[in-house]
Amino acid sequence: MELLPLVVVIAGIFILRGYNQRIKRLEVRVQELQNAIAGKVLPADVAESAPAEKPQTSAALLHAEHDDGAAIAEAAIPSPSPVDIEEADIAARDMADTFTDGGPDITAPAAMKPKESLESTIGARWAVWVGGIALALGGIFMIKYSIESGLLSPGVRLVLAAIFGLILVAAGEVIRRRSAPVSGNAFQNAMVPGVLTAAGVVALFGSTYAAHGIYGFIGPATAFVLLALISLATLALSLLHGQALAGLGLLASMVTPALIASTAPRPWILFGYLVLTWLATLLASRLRRWLIAPSLANALLSLWPLLYISYSPVVDFTPVTLSMLAMIGGTIFLWPGRYQTAAKAVDHATTETKANPLQLRSAGGGGAFLARAPLGMTLTATIGALAVALSLLADGLLYGYPIVDAVFMFAAIVAAVAAFGAGRLHAAWAAILSAVVAIIGMFGLLTNWIYGLDPGTVDALARMQSMVIYEALGLGAIFVLIGAFFLRRFAEGEKPFAALWSLIMAAVPLAIATISFFNFGNWTVDWLHGLYGIGLAVALLALAEWQYRRSGDGWNLPTNILAAGSFAATVFALHVLAHHAVPTILLPVLGIAYLLTGRVRDWPVLPWAMVAALIVAMARIAWQPTIVDPSELGTTPVFNMLLAGYGIPAALAAVAAFMVRRAPNIRLCSALQALASFLVLLTIAILVRHAMNGGVLNDAVPTLGEQSIYTLLAIGASATLMALDLSAASPVFRYGSMALGTLSVIMILTLHLLGLNPFITGESTGRIPLFNLLLLGYLLPAIAYGGLALLARNRRPLPYVAMLAVAGAVMVFAWATLTVRRFWQGEYIPFWNDFIQGELYSYSVVWLLIGIALLGLGARFEARSLRIASAVLVFIAVVKAFLIDMANLEGFLRALSFIGLGAVLIGIGLFYQKILTRKKATE
């Protein structure tokens, strides 16, 4: 049984020799196919990447011109056999997705892989895999048997295991030299030489570890060196046996430090060895154009710092940082290096055709750059490095590590990943994730770092705080520099990617500066953050101008994003350099400046900066309605800081709306018109509020007098917007006027007639009989509604006009009714006071007079709504006469009430008969 593995190996060798003749015939046939393609040769980079002993195959078809190549191939190969077609497809797949140092070209993807038969899967692949496992298990069982039987000493067993491993490695090399390249490529994930070599490596690695970890024959240093040499040798052998062996060697290399126990771990040696192993894997992957092995190497190299930071009592951050910088640097410059899409094939290729099956399909879409290969290598390097950077920062906050150094190392790693995202077109995720981690890291740092420190003096804390702020702001500035580098190199050819970097350049430094200011800034005047914001605004605006001059297109997306970023940075600087009313007043001034700049540069974003400035100004007003500190506001009506804080933005909004009145952008015109209208109305309303409350702005419920002014303002604003719409048609003016009219009607129904009615609240109506609160609260709004309805007639929808007319009639009715009650009750007219007989009779008279007046107005203006309102009012008078007057009035007043009611009803009937007769005569 002990000799069984050796017998299997020898039998395999003899079996493979039986296929040598057939393989040689296939090689001759492939050479003939190569010669049939006249004038077509492999590029230099592809020839170098192919094995030295492998002749040029029909993979040259990939680099031939599509139409000519197809025609030549059809003429040269009239009837290829199935075996020839399979071998040509194998060679084509082997040449796809190649890279070169400093600018690898990507050839067209390979033809579709033929479906593998079950016989081939079982016989050529599974047999190899199971055989390799069997060899490894055989060696293990042989050692186990010798231990249980006590046949051999431990030293002899280890030597025999090592010899067995060397025999397997040698057998793999012998078979590799005798195997054909085509066969190796056809079953490259199940190559017999590679499986034998892998089994031998496992035996060597296991025997070496057992010599140290189980029997103690060798010390930690010797064991570490031997295991490292075995691992690196395995990586070297992977150049001959394939990517799977490289993965095995990489895994062994990365596990080696964990297997060797050390009482005094040395992080510099540890991470130096890990970087050396990673570099060896990267170089091997570059030579053989592998993608999986380097991705695994990135993941394992990133895992070690996380374990080291989590479980080491004392952490040295420097070797950890340098290892991550080495990983990012190697990914940028060594492999995959610069990734190019051949002639923009990903974005502009046509679909596959029958005559040319090797054409690239178009990736399509503006976000296609996010999925560019090699995506696995990009994500493993990016996520691994950024995870380590966050761990450095978190450990520094948790254990009080010198925070300045921790922030510096965090910034170095993040900046390196950002540089990766700017230097390579396939590294879009590096740009995105570095920006996100920079903001998250600085937020966590600047909001929590002080709690993990215990400085000896206040001065030390202040100096440390300043250094941390400088480092945070410096990281934001680095993103601007890196983004400028990307725009300089790739802006013209990579517009979606350039737009992404433009957004990152504006968002990251501004977000970091905002976080820093909110946590450590001087809220009165902060020159550090203010100058930083001004510098950022100038830099972004200069870059926008530079982009515009390079492209000559004002609609260029990066240009507009940078210009918007400069506006946001200026707004930030304005807030940190001023306080109270100054930013609120200067924001619209800043918007006007960008609006005027839009006349020099046709960038669509510039006029919209005025809209943004007004919105920010209104947000400030909502945050501090008094504009200044309430104690500084004063009680002088109108002429106070409210006039400046509300009035200047409103005036500038009106100016901006006038400036763009003829602009082709309808949305911009409408937005500015709406904002101007709202701010003007808000200014007047707030001044009224201040004046009506004795110079105090609070959340107290307004009185009827104050609310009446608001209602009159809404009616007046509705009329103003209607007039503006008649002079310059605008949907904002049209629908805004109707919205304000409807809002005012809602106010009278809910507040004038119910919530603030003196009949319900008992509020004083004033001492003067006619010019009192009832005049302001009811009669003036009624007159205003009448004028607004007259203005809207034939200019607005009929239901809207009818609503205004009825609202005016209701307000007249309320004014007359309450005025009658005040005449009989005096200054206070609450409902809990009893009614007087003369008061009840007066209601009937007044209501009938109002009904007659409304009937006359309805007939005069042909307003059916007024005639209906008259009928309703007369009906109310009739009901009152029969239900209330009959029960409460006595003597002469009762008779006079019914006599007057009858006369009025008869008169109304005659009036309607006359109208109907006139209409029939006209018809």
From TrEMBL:
Transmembrane segments: 6-23, 122-143, 155-175, 187-211, 217-237, 244-262, 268-284, 291-311, 317-335, 369-393, 399-420, 427-447, 467-487, 499-521, 527-543, 555-574, 580-598, 605-623, 643-661, 668-688, 708-726, 738-756, 768-791, 798-820, 840-859, 866-886, 892-912
This protein's record includes keyword rRNA processing: no
Region forming the signal peptide: none
Keywords for the protein's UniProt record, in alphabetical order: Membrane, Transmembrane, Transmembrane helix
Keyword Membrane part of the UniProt annotation: yes
PANTHER family hit by this protein: BLL2549 PROTEIN
The protein's name: DUF2339 domain-containing protein
